Amino acid sequence: MHRAVIHLNDAAPEKTQTVLQNTANLLAALGPETQVELITHGPGIAVATAPAAEELTTQLTGLLAAGVTLCVCQNTMAARRLTPTDIHPQAVVVASGVAHLVTRQSEGWSYLHP
């Protein structure tokens, strides 16, 4: 079974769209048993907080339904004064986005930063 963490720290809509499309392509190529975590921090947290273009929202909803875990950095939330009610209801809060990336890599997860 494959396991991958995908790093999103950019809020630009075209970057977010690329990351979401890469995630969908990964699942299509490796199969639904692939474990994928989308780790967001810094500006990238916008995918989980800000109203996004309908296309991005549709892509994210489809990925979550396919089993992708959306992880949001607690440090970024604190810096931006966000509460759990400000983030996507399916998001999982991790203490530190970058520390979570390092931990997953040390556990053997593949790292992608499109």
UniProtKB/TrEMBL annotation:
PANTHER family membership: BLR3518 PROTEIN
Protein name from the UniProt record: DsrE family protein
Signal peptide: none
A Pfam family per the record: DsrE
Species of origin: Kocuria aegyptia
Domain of life (superkingdom): Bacteria
